[in-house]
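Question (not urgent): is this output format expected?
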Amino acid sequence: VYSEDILPCLTFPNADLSSKILTAIEHNDVTMETCHMRTIDENMK
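Got this back:
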């Protein structure tokens, strides 16, 4: 699951950034939240 589903989503051109994000996730140091919520009507435009 990790190599098939997680790694491909977190592999960026900036390898250092990818490494730091993956390490933070593995250490449970990352919190993610929505920064902009769209309504269904906005998505249909």
